[in-house]
Amino acid sequence: MLQSNPYSACTSILIGRKASIDGSVMIGRNEDSRPAWPKHFIVHPAKISEPAPTFTSNDNNFSMPLPTHAAKYTATPEWTDKFGVFEEDGINAFGVAMSATESTYANQRVLAADPLVKDGIGEEAMVTVTLPYIDSARAGVKRLGAIVSQYGTCESNGILFADQSEAWYMETGSGHYWVAQRIPDDSYAVVANQMAIQEIDFNNSEDFMWHPDIERFVTQNHLNPNRTGFNFRQIFGTQNAMDSVYNLPRVWYGQKCFNPHREQAVSSSEMPFINQAEQLLSLTDARLFLGSHYQQTVYDPLGDGSQADKKRFRPVSLAATQESHILQLRPFNNPAISGLHWLAMGVTAQSVFVPFYAGIEDTPAAYKLGTKTYQPESAYWVYKQAGVLVDAHYKEFGPLLHETQQTLTRDFDELVLQTDQAGQTLSGDELTHLLTNESRRAAEMGLKAYKTLTAKLITQATALSPLSYHQDLNL
Asked: Of the residues 12, 166, 348, 439, which has the maximum number of CB atoms within 10 A of its CB?
């Protein structure tokens, strides 16, 4: 996430429609920044503004005019906009999903030729100035690419777009230059804070997009280390010690999950961006990856490896996660019911993905509450509190947490199946009300279960005090 802190960084996954078990296109990401920094979840209604509005960032004063017509969209802004809005992820009324951003890092050769722009667009503004104004994933890349080209960017980032047909991954490599690649329908990609896109085929505009002047820029400034080809990762990216312990192991673990028979070094810089999984991938696979911490390896911080191994690599799920999302676009005709915004507040491994339909008109009150100080009625803090209690006694309390997660996940999946069936014959306001009410019911189920879990944890923790004393009855 925030470029000012190299240890604040996210992990992403993209899955093509023919790579998924049910024909869904999925994009997901853990939003990692600070251990106690709440997120809210809201719905922006469709809006017509006359005259055309102007967006101005509270973070760096980036400013640009916006179109008069904005579509409805879901978003997860921060609890305060003092440092920017950081809306991060959402699905709009056209069934287009966007997640921004996956922080990456450009090398010094590139930045010397095209420095980052201090008042250019940054992560905090990208969803806000893009998602309400696009009707396809491809259109999202084009719009954001044009903004970066014109105004510049203050960071290097990876941005995820999806609709029912396509998933796209876009990377900004310097102040103004960018590329994007369509994830093949039968493939997936996992990304972890390192520029990921490899060879660009400039003769294939169906599967690649790019800044129109990027070839000349690279040639003129002698930036390509290879004799042939155009490997974006090698030209614009980094290969350093932080990559080998902070970034690459997460990619290795994701590919290990989905291609378990592939042999790769944990910190290999040659791991492919595009992959075909050994089996079709499901929503469950995406959930497990985003909540992972090197399970069944010696690197698991909660496992039985040596202390050195358990702290050797940064896991996918960690305490700094603010929220995690999976934006699932299923093959239904109506975007209101085909889109599911699965949202896990707080640490992914300790939370649960709650389903919210794209067609909702509002979010529950608990999802609009929460400041940096604990607030018991805030959805973020309800999930965060349970995780904090589990942290203190993981071996004792882990089974209770996992039982709650498994029960809720099963109940949520059942609720979605029932809602899908009930909604197929509805339209207009009737469908909107159904989707809003059922999404609210799912949210209430999750909050109630986690409050019950917290009550059990506090009660059981009373017997685990270091001040306990057991008297010998024979004295």
From this structure: 348
Q: 3-state DSSP call for residue 29?
A: strand
| Spatial separation of the C-alpha atoms in residues 252 and 237, rounded to whole Å | 18
Query: How far is residue 242 from each of residues 66, 101, 247, 250, 385, measured CA to CA in Å?
Result: 38, 19, 7, 12, 31
Token couple for 231: 């490997």
Contact (Cβ atoms closer than 8 angstroms) between residue 163 and residue 95: yes
The sign of the torsion formed by the CA atoms of 181, 187, 192, 195 equals negative
pTM above 0.90, yes or no: yes
Amino acid symbol at 335: P
Q: Block means of pLDDT (10 residues each) for the chain, length 475 residues?
A: 50 98 98 95 97 96 98 98 97 98 96 98 98 98 98 98 98 98 98 97 98 98 98 95 93 98 95 98 98 97 96 95 98 97 98 98 98 97 98 95 98 98 96 98 98 98 87 68
For residue 408, the one-letter residue type is L
Catalytic residues: 10
